[in-house]
Design brief:
- It is a single chain.
- It contains 5 helices and no strands.
- The chain has 111 residues and is mainly α.
- Helix 1 packs across helix 2 (40-46), helix 1 runs antiparallel to helix 3 (55-77) and helix 1 (13-38) runs parallel beside helix 4 (84-100).
Length: 111
C-alpha cells in the first residue's frame, strides 16, 4: 500500500457558507413567527395549507431563505479561506435570534 503525501488544502468558504446560511434560515423562521402575530396580512399570506395554518409558510420562507443565502454565500465564499470559528459564532448568533423570536413570551408580547 502506498501513501501519498499530498498537501491537501481544504477551502473553508463553502463550509462556512453552508453553516451561516442555516442560521439565516432559522432567523427567518423566527421573524416569520413573530411577524405572523404582528400582521394578520402576513399570517394569511403564510397560510399555504389550511390544516397546518401559517406554520407551512413560516417554514417555507425559512427554507427558501436558507437555500437562497446558501447559494449567494457559496458563490461569494467558495475557493476561499474563512475562519470556521467565526462562521460558527455568526451562526450561533443567528440561531439565537431565531430562537428568541419563536418563544411565545416574545411574540405574545406583541399581541
Amino acid at each position: 500500500m502506498t501513501t501519498q503525501n499530498q498537501d491537501t488544502n481544504i477551502q473553508t468558504g463553502s463550509i462556512s457558507a453552508a453553516i451561516i446560511s442555516s442560521g439565516i434560515g432559522s432567523m427567518i423562521i423566527g421573524f416569520m413567527t413573530t411577524g405572523a402575530v404582528l400582521s394578520s396580512g402576513l399570517k394569511d399570506f403564510l397560510n399555504l395549507w389550511n390544516p397546518a395554518g401559517p406554520l407551512t409558510g413560516k417554514t417555507t420562507m425559512g427554507v427558501l431563505a436558507w437555500l437562497v443565502s446558501w447559494f449567494i454565500l457559496n458563490s461569494i465564499m467558495k475557493n476561499k479561506e474563512y475562519d470556521l470559528g467565526k462562521a460558527f459564532k455568526i451562526t450561533m448568533i443567528l440561531l439565537g435570534i431565531g430562537l428568541v423570536f419563536t418563544f411565545p413570551l416574545v411574540f405574545e408580547a406583541f399581541e
